[in-house]
């Protein structure tokens, strides 16, 4: 059986910086509240007319990852695209990437697992590599949140948190037994689906119904989040799934060289850091600059950490995610 390794990483974020003060001009919020509760100072939003979309940003990140993997588009056997904000309701973003990158008719798979999307995608890629079916897989996490948020005071508890961006990784076959993706661990609990969700347009809330009802409150085509419930579940699940990954590999928290938590909220990351007694240089956070970019957050953070020289050969890197679904997962990687 083969092992899979991350052979190239890249990310792209739109140039347009939106600070907390910028948001306070659109809704009743302020820098102090946002920083204190979430750690976020600013985020990136696509600007109308800048040419970006979820797929376009994904392609920009993917091209960097490919170049760093020293591969071309012709070497890629499969595209896996994770997003909750595809350009179109259907088809998903994977086929758009295949077209925009002018790739041959390779398969394109879309993963709908929100904040856990990248870890789920990595796990799928890992299985295809391990069985020998594919050699190189392009995994992309990309989100265009800004186009779908309620940017009024009504939506402030959600809108201040999320940002736009994309991250990509090339997953390649490796012959090494002790390097690469050691294991991945995935979970879900659909009983809490509605606690962090966007209900319409969907077959439950289809367009004619939305137009007819046009409710003033709880508009189903804006995301809804039960913030405190999400927070409480997140801290428990993050810890559980990191422990599960460590135990599966006979490792302990002291073995972790770098933890890259999904950038949900700085307070959640700090809580997890404390639980595992990790020093500051063993956890990477960049939510301060980008907000929560959902499926893109782990590949963006992983790329930045690697670019900054914070991940070295032989390091034990742990990825962990939790989000809407609820879904959660971890990946244990020997770099
Ligand atoms: C969203 C979150 C920051 C809210 O913090 P909180 O301490 O739970 O705050 P609450 O929702 O209880 O709201 C407290 C007050 O702030 C207000 N408020 C909400 N959003 C606000 C904003 N952007 N600016 C100012 N005030 C705001 C509320 O209306 C409420 O006012 P009230 O007390 O007068 O009713 C927090 O619940 C959280 O981080 N949850 C996890 C979210 C997350 O990680 N999501 C991603 C998962 S992948």
From TrEMBL:
> What's in the keyword line of the UniProt record?
Acyltransferase, Cytoplasm, Fatty acid biosynthesis, Fatty acid metabolism, Lipid biosynthesis, Lipid metabolism, Multifunctional enzyme, Transferase
> What is this enzyme's EC?
2.3.1.180
* Stretches the record annotates as ACP-binding: 263-267
Example of a GO cellular component annotation carried by this entry: cytoplasm
Where does the Beta-ketoacyl-[acyl-carrier-protein] synthase III N-terminal domain lie?
109-190
Catalytic reaction(s) noted: malonyl-[ACP] + acetyl-CoA + H(+) = 3-oxobutanoyl-[ACP] + CO2 + CoA
Query: Is Cell membrane set as a keyword in this record?
Result: no
The entry's family comment says: Belongs to the thiolase-like superfamily. FabH family.
What is this protein's function?
Catalyzes the condensation reaction of fatty acid synthesis by the addition to an acyl acceptor of two carbons from malonyl-ACP. Catalyzes the first condensation reaction which initiates fatty acid synthesis and may therefore play a role in governing the total rate of fatty acid production. Possesses both acetoacetyl-ACP synthase and acetyl transacylase activities. Its substrate specificity determines the biosynthesis of branched-chain and/or straight-chain of fatty acids.
Protein name, please? Beta-ketoacyl-[acyl-carrier-protein] synthase III
Q: Which organism is it from?
A: Aquimarina algicola
